Each structure stands twice: as structure tokens, then as C-alpha cells.
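PROTOCOL LOG
Step 1. Enter all chains and additional molecules of the complex.
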Amino acid sequence: MATTEVMLNRPANKKASASFSELAKQEERLAYWLLLPTFLVVLIIAIYPLGSVFVSSFTNRTFASSQPTVFVQFQNYRKLLSLDIRRLPPVVDKATGQVKLDKSGGVVYEAPVNVLPTDPIRYKEVSQFSIFGNHYVIGATDPNFIHSVGDTITFTVLTVLLEFLLGLGIAMVLNGFPARSVTRALLMAIMLIPWAIPTAVSSRIWQFMLDSSRVGFFNMASSALGLGNGHIAFLSDPTYQLPAMILIDVWKTTPFMALLLLAGLQLIPGDIYEAGDVDGANKWRRFWNLTLPLLRSTISVALVFRTLDALRVFDVFQIVLAQSRYSMASFTYYQLINSRVMGYSSASSVVIFILILIFAVIYIRTLGVETE
Amino acid sequence: MTTQSVTGERNPIWGVLERIGFWLMVVVIVVWMLFPFYWAINSSLKSESQLQMTPATLVPADPNTHGLSVFVANYASVFKNSAFVRGLLNSAIVAISVTLLALAIGSFAAFALGKLRFRGKSPSLYLVLAMTMFPQIAVLSGLYAMILFLGISAIPGMIVTYMLFTLPFTVWVLTSFFKGLPLEIMQAAQVDGATGFQTFVQILLPLTAPALVTTGLLAFIAAWNEYLFALTFTSIEPQARTVPVVIALFSGQVAHQEPFGEIMAAGIVVSIPLVILVLIFQQRIISGLTAGAVKG
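Step 2. Run joint prediction.
Step 3. Record the structure below.
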């Protein structure tokens, strides 16, 4: 690195070398002055607010309220993260002494409300499951947050995986064109369009395409193909909500992934392939043994960027699903703006921050991303 | 380059099939990328009654005759919508200011990081790199509280806080560009007696014009599209809303009957400047996007 730098005002003759260190100091001073605005910005809009979010996550601070702000220790975190698993006993019919069955012959279990703890905060049902013949309920003091964490992680894993596979396929197709061809330039411009359109706009477009009647494209197409009755509630039926979010994100972000991978593919020198041809390697083997390993560092960086990005997904969840289903970020937003519970929202921000940090560290450790 | 080398050795039929398969994939990719955009244009050219037709039509059709019937009034009513027009203006003010501010602050820092010697350079670079991964949501409540406390109105608030995601990559991309500039240029300037700062402003900055265009475009697009901060900071100041917020909140009098024709028209209007930028500066945008991710 040192060779690409210059010592400004480096003295041309040796006589002046007495003032050499003075000039080096001058250069250093100039560097600090030039960096000052950037550091001020980082301090004011990143480090200070992060600190204040951390502090207020331990308080009951509320917006637009006369209630005094006091420290509540870990109360916000306890409410966000408390989980409990309880066994649901079958209901026994008092008259017969037998286990009560519903109309279809399934066992009727105790209502979760009667089983989950209520003190000091009421636990509400997150989900139920059966294992080893017993039936259990998972309760949480804030099921919405627990759901948002689960949904966001599912969303992240599936979108990043799909975007990577599709993006790699698209990059390979585009790489089939000569680097300077007009077709390739045109295709790349087309691929930038989904990326460039504001997420707010693409969310509204997809929301309309996913309309619950045949006014929407997907219901029109699926009923024309004989699938479904033309009234599939893609955006309000919980089964389809997450797949819909994933579909929208995959559409918007796959091109970005493809462009990153394509840039990586272009760095692979062509003569490596020629050597492979001599060895009689077929296309698939060549892809597996040459292309993928050579693309490794590009893939790592792309996956890290996309994962950290997907974990903070907000726009599409907030616009399309609003408060019917949350991502971690949209949960935090609604706590802040609708419920005005700033302390609680801050705690949720801190949890997201830590989660993203953990993902970043795991990724960098396992994939060995180079930072220089 | 992967397709031609292998085909010659085998049955020519395979080569033809391969070409067909290849072009089929190209067509599928293009349709998949552009279809939602096409659907938005199609819907923006339909009247309310045409939008309610079931099944939905692939081109705007007359409800009775099913002939082609294009309805352009959505675009007219979008431009008569004062919230939308003000949103366009707000977005332009915010995005242009953010771009200029990020380029000014960013090029200062990038010159220092790319061309000067000083203690603490590596930690500074790492700080900038870490910032590129910083989640906006983590500081949302802190920033909002700060803006309310200081009484800053939403537009200047957005301009300053958007530095959070525009400044790091501006610095990052410009730094690598400065590193690549030849030393001889700077040395020649020094022989002429220019100070360090003069060298930077008069000699190096003009040379970085291509990189400034690239990073400026990315900063502009990011600021134009930003939603979370804009939505939050304008929640008590609706007249400061930028266009993504206006479009997201665009709704009719009856909640379940949203004017989708107008929403789609508004979406197209907002996207057109971006599509034009993308078509003109395709190469630059891609080089900027991939600069951080691949080496070369």
C-alpha cells in the first residue's frame, strides 16, 4: 500500500530534510481536518443515537406523554423475550371419566389460557406442538415479537438462498454473451430496473397483482390455469403471507445478486477454462470444480451483504402487510410510532442490532470474508 | 464464452438445442424482470371500472366490447394531487441535497484515506466499512427523539440522517478510486508549489469526476427510494412527505377501495427518472454497486 501513497511536499533535496518531519505533521493535520466532517456525522447520527437507544431501552420512556421516565432495568427485554413451554393436559369429561374428543375424533386439550403463567405479565400463545404423545404450548409475553423474529429469520434464509441460486443462474446466462455485446448491456440495464424502482412502488405493484380476487394478476392467472377458485387471499391468509413477501423480495433483489456474481465471473481469466477443456472436463464439472471455487470470495461478500440487508427488511412488510404480520423492523416501527412506547421499541432495536451483529460475526468467521 | 467452446465437438443438433435453451432462458429472465412493471403500466391506463373487470385483462380493454381502450386520466389526476406533487418536490430537494452533501464530505475523507499518510488510518477505514452494514432500524428511535428534541423539521432531518447509508459507500468507493490515481500528478503539482489542499481541490478532484458521478448516482437513488426514516420523521409533518411515503399511504376514502389506477400511475411517474438514469448510466451504476463486493 505504501507505494501508492505520496508524502506531500516531500523535500526535493536533502538540505530541507530538517523540515521533513514538520511537513509530515502538516500532512497528518490535513488528513485529520479532511476526516473531521465524516467523523462528526458518524458520531451524531450513528454512535450517539445508538447509545441513546441503548440507554432508553432500560427505561419506560414514552413519546408525547406526561408520565415521568424512570429506569426499569430489564423489564422491556423481559417482556420482549420471555418464553415458556407448558404441557397441555387433555380435557377429561367429568361425566364419563374419559378423555374428551372433538367431532372428528381428535383429543381436546386444555385451553392455553388456563395453563400459561399470568404473573407478573400474562403469557399468550405463540404456537402448539405434539411430541412423544404429549401436547405442548409455547407461550410468550409478546407473541408478536417472537413471531416477527421467526418470520424475519425464515424470510432471510429463504430469500437469500433463492436469490443466490437464481442470481447465479442468471449470471451464468449473461456470462454466455461476449463482455462488450449490446445484448448483454441491454440485459444488464433491464436487470437494474427492479433494483432501481423504489420498494414503496414495487410493493404497491405486487400488492395489486396479489389482490384477493381475479382483479389481481395472480388470481386471474391461477384460475385461468385451473388452480384455485380465483379468490385466494394471498395477502391476508397466513399460509401465503410469508411466501408473498419472499416472492416480492426475490423479484426485486435477484438482479442485484446476479450483477455482483457476474462481476465476479468476469474476473476469472479465460485461460483457466481452456486448461479445463484440454483435460476434457465437461461443463458441469468445470462449473463445479473451477467456477464455484474461483467465485468463492464474491459469493461470500454477496451473501453477507444480502443477509444483513434481509434481516432488517421493513418496506415491503410495512406497506403490504401493515400490522397483520410483522418483520422485526416493522414491529419496532409500530411500537415507536403507533404505541409511542419508545423504551420498549428501543429494546427491540437493540435486539435486532445484536442479532445482526451475531450473523455478521458468524458469516465472517465461517466464510472468511476479506475486509481489505 | 462458455457456450461456444464445447458445442463444436458434438452432434450439431445439440448445439442448436443448446442455443434455443439459452435464448429461452434469456426470454424468461427478461419477462420475469419486466412483467410487474408492465402490469403497473397496464393498470395505470385503466379506469376504475376497467380495473374491476374479472378476469383482469392483459391490456386495457373496454368492459363491453373488449376492444383496446386506453384511459389516461389517472396521470392527469395524479398531477392534480397536491400531496403527490409536493412529494415529488420534497423528494427532489432531499435526494439532490443528500447527493451533494455526501459527495462533499465523502471526497474529503476519501482523499485523506486514499492519498495521505497519518496515524489511525486502518481503524478509520474499518469504521467506514462497519458503517456500510449499520442497520437503520437500530437508531430509529434515538434519531427521531433527537430530531424532535432539537426541533429540526423533517426535510433537513432527512438530509442529515441519510448520510447514515450514503456516506459510508461514498467514502469507500472514492477511497479506492483515489488510491488508483498516479502519484506523478500530485508530485507535479507540488513542484509547482501547490499545498496539499490545493492539490486535492484543483488537480485530483477534477480527475475523480467519473467516480463522483458513479457514487452520486447511487446516493441519489438510495435517497430517492428511502422509506423508513421518511415515514417516521414525517409522521407528524405530512407536508414534508417524500414520494415513497406518499405512494405507500395513497388511499381512497374507503379503506378497502384503493384507487389502484392512480397509485400505479404515480408509481410509474416516480420510477421513470430512475429508469432513465439506469439506461444512461448502466455501466457506471454497476461498477459502483460491485466496487465494494469484488476486487478488481
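Step 4. Note key features.
Chain B has a mean pLDDT of 86.
Residues 44 and 261 of chain B are 5 Å apart (CA to CA).
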